[in-house]
Design a protein that fits this description.
This protein has helices at residues 16-23, 74-80, 124-130, 171-176; strands at residues 2-8, 11-13, 31-34, 41-50, 55-62, 69-71, 86-87, 98-101, 106-109, 113-116, 119-122, 137-142, 150-159, 166-170, 183-188. The chain is mostly beta strands. Strands 2, 3, 4, 5, 6, 7, 8, 9 and 10 form a 9-stranded mixed sheet that branches. It has a 6-stranded mixed barrel with strand order 1-14-11-13-12-15.
């Protein structure tokens, strides 16, 4: 069973309130390009993320969310000086926070910095074809032609009618497997 594997670089999801603080009351998200998941898009706006040891610029992904979340690779977390736990997107309770700086203002978020758990997005129909269920843990083999073939374990399956089939890994994981661009992975149950 093959699945498209995409590398998800560091990024931030913001609430309307946080976006307004950082960019001003009249500002709106500017779509730069659509992403593989329906309705999701990369924005032209960038935010400076500041931790105890460093800072880096990150792109905002839209649309706005109900909670602000900063997704980093573990290498990014070390550079920032933040002990980011590996979590599923949206599971931010008890996670570290950071300072966000925009062109108009700045704010401290109390929590929300995570290294996203590797995951597969599937529609219910695709999940049935793969023979998997929501929250099931699988493995995915990638990089057969890179000289660095890797099997990723602990990949969580996420099922929703609003998804498009794709697996997401971070830049550390992609680099470890020698991946370049979007590749196919083999799902192993």
């Amino acid at each position: 069973m093959k699945i498209m594997v995409e590398t998800s670089a560091r990024h931030i999801h913001v609430t309307k309130e946080v976006f307004t603080t950082l960019f001003g009351a009249d500002a709106t998200l500017t779509k730069k390009k659509d992403l593989s998941q329906p309705g999701q898009f990369a924005c032209a706006e960038k935010v400076k993320v500041v931790g105890p040891k460093g800072e880096m610029m990150m792109s905002i992904l839209g649309p706005e969310r109900s909670a602000t979340q900063v997704e980093v690779a573990l290498t990014d977390a070390r550079k920032l000086g933040i002990a980011a736990p590996v979590r599923e997107s949206g599971d931010i309770a008890g996670t570290p926070g950071c300072k966000l700086v925009g062109p108009v203002g700045e704010c401290e978020i109390e929590c929300g910095v995570i290294a996203a758990k590797r995951h597969i997005h599937l529609t219910p129909e695709a999940a049935a074809e793969f023979g998997v269920t929501d929250k099931q843990i699988v493995s995915v083999k990638v990089g057969e032609n890179t000289g660095r073939a890797t099997t990723f374990g602990d990949v969580v399956v996420r099922v929703s009618p609003s998804y498009a089939p794709a697996m997401h890994i971070d830049t550390d994981e992609s680099n470890a497997a020698g991946l370049s661009g979007t590749v196919d992975g083999e799902v192993i149950l």
